[in-house]
Write a structure and sequence with these properties.
- The chain is an all-alpha fold.
- It has one domain (57-278): Orthogonal Bundle (MetI-like fold).
- Helices cover 75% and strands 1% of the residues.
- The protein is built from 11 helices and 2 strands.
């Protein structure tokens, strides 16, 4: 087999593997669209559930998911980016930092239900926050931290070392160099990691099951110490716990949740592509 034939074979194999991955995803999305698109309307998005959740909309669950996502961002972004800056710019290559990086990798692979049980023990019971938006946001923030730290650190390390050398040689301090030279150029990767982490948090069920999610609430939450409905758990409830639930409502709810997660992924991709095109190196 010639080199050209080998390359052509490799291209066909890669194309086939890509199709094996993409086609099932497209089938799932199209199937959900077929079954759920007729249910989606302004009333479905803006109204609370009625008649044992077999009628009405998903507004409390949608709003709860937004609250939890914002709370996760507040809890995870400063700590995650700060930890990434420390590991990339200040920490030396020693046993401690290698152990920290290994711990971050291991934390990223822990099942989400373990985070839920930890959140139940730490935030709900020990710190006495109760089942609340605060407890759920902190739990999701912990779950999101490894993703944010890893992606932010990689983005910071990808900035050429020459930028740091020139800045320091002109009299800037180390922090001024990081703030004015490193972070602006690493921002596309950092934002991408943050948004992908938040997208994962928005779609998780197990952590919020123990810390914040309610089966049904007639009133909207008034503070971070209140329980809240959330789309992932609401979808689980209407799909498994409510008899006589119309399939249209189930698939419509799933479609809204999928739209939120895919929108976050698309936004991350667009931000990264736009900022990288403006980059001069």
């Amino acid at each position: 087999m010639t080199r050209q034939q080998s390359q052509q074979l490799a291209i066909w194999v890669i194309t086939a593997v890509s199709a094996i991955v993409v086609i099932p995803i497209l089938i799932v999305i199209l199937y959900m669209l077929y079954n759920g698109i007729s249910t989606i309307s302004w009333e479905f998005i803006s109204q609370p559930p009625r008649n044992g959740m077999t009628e009405g909309g998903i507004f409390p669950a949608l709003l709860g998911t937004i609250f939890l996502t914002l709370g996760t961002a507040v809890a995870a972004i400063p700590l995650g980016v700060g930890a990434a800056i420390y590991l990339a710019e200040y920490a030396g290559d020693n046993r401690l930092t290698r152990a920290i990086r290994l711990a971050i990798v291991n934390l990223a692979g822990i099942p989400s239900i373990v985070y839920g049980l930890f959140g139940l023990g730490m935030f709900v019971l020990f710190l006495n926050y109760g089942t609340s938006i605060l407890a759920g946001s902190l739990t999701l923030g912990l779950m999101t931290l490894p993703v944010i730290i890893s992606t932010a650190e990689e983005a910071i390390l990808s900035v050429p070392q020459e930028f740091r050398i020139v800045s320091l040689s002109l009299g800037a301090t180390r922090w001024q160099t990081i703030r004015n030279q490193v972070l602006p150029h690493a921002l596309p990767g950092i934002i991408t990691g943050v948004i992908l982490g938040l997208g994962r948090a928005a779609g998780e069920t197990a952590p919020i099951l123990f810390t914040v999610a309610a089966f049904y609430l007639p009133n909207l939450p008034k503070s971070i110490f209140d329980q809240s409905m959330a789309l992932p758990y609401h979808l689980y409830v209407i799909a498994t716990q409510v008899p006589g639930m119309p399939l249209g409502i189930q698939y419509g709810t799933a479609l809204i949740l999928l739209f939120i997660v895919l929108s976050l992924t698309l936004v991350a991709t667009l931000i990264r592509s736009t900022m990288r095109r403006r980059r001069e190196w």
